[in-house]
Amino acid sequence: MALRVVSSSPAIFSSQRRAASVLPSTLTLPNTNSSLLSSSSAISSIDRTKSVTLRSKTSRRNGVVTCSASSVLPKALLFDCDGVLVDTEKDGHRISFNDTFAENPLVYNGIQKELGVTWDVDLYGELLKIGGGKERMTAYFNKVGWPENAPKTEEERKEFIAGLHKRKTELFMVLIEKKLLPLRPGVEKLIDQALGNGVKVAVCSTSNEKAVSAIVSCLLGPERAEQIQIFAGDVVPRKKPDPAIYLLAADTLGVDPSSCVVVEDSGIGLAAAKAAGMTCIVTKSGYTADENFSNADAVFDCIGDPPEERFDLAFCGNLLEKQYVS
């Protein structure tokens, strides 16, 4: 999907592998890995050994983009968790769900019966359109039918689902504590830039709070974790794509939603951020590469570390001053 940038003044942009001398103020980029920045009307050569910095002129060397320094930084940088901090879904959450289904047979009249449920890769991709693990399981059973020996009343089914989800979270946390799922490229860098510049950082997720806290503390370390606020799970009654969790984060952090930049990876997360009135950058993940992100302010394949850096904190500030649309 091409990225298009709209700016009120002449702008210069470039894809990661093409250079030009002079470009118009609106340009379609065929490469979604490209950084989108605007400033003067000249592009110079490239230096991939340098990270993205903001300077007085837009230039690029070996695919690393530099642009005019922004006088604005976000008041808060808000990250989704799954798919943004860590690509957890296919080989983390999905595996933990399936292990939970396998080890939790239903008991009826003293007879055990397996749930008989396995979520394959494609099915789980569809289920991810539903925010929240408990909600995901409930929607699945409502559609395909509840197991024969499953509870019959709504209240009993809620307890049944809650029990499955609690066990699933325990199994998932084991994966995180063993560090079997790494942080995505550039996450540590961008968080350090934000904390180092007095920008508030939070993680806003539909996942269980314990699971999100485990990711933050185990993979980002205790020093960073102490400075990162977590809004997760059932902290709000309505989950993404409802904006409630982002509005709660802005209110708790004492910042205006319009001064926040969100990093998301999914369509429902993007919808939540935009409904909250926030700027949103999408970093595509394994399950979301083909989703429609036409409403995003910028789209990349990841945040990235030098020399493959896609964007940095200064770029986030630039987005608050310029309009970028896909």
UniProtKB/TrEMBL annotation:
Coiled coil (UniProt feature): none
Top-level taxonomic group: Eukaryota
CDD domains: HAD_CbbY-like
Molecular function per GO: hydrolase activity; metal ion binding
Keyword Transmembrane applies: no
The keyword Ribonucleoprotein is annotated on this UniProt entry: no
UniProt KW keywords: Hydrolase, Metal-binding
Similarity field: Belongs to the HAD-like hydrolase superfamily. DOG/GPP family.
Annotated NCBIfam families: HAD-SF-IA-v3
This protein's name: 2-deoxyglucose-6-phosphate phosphatase
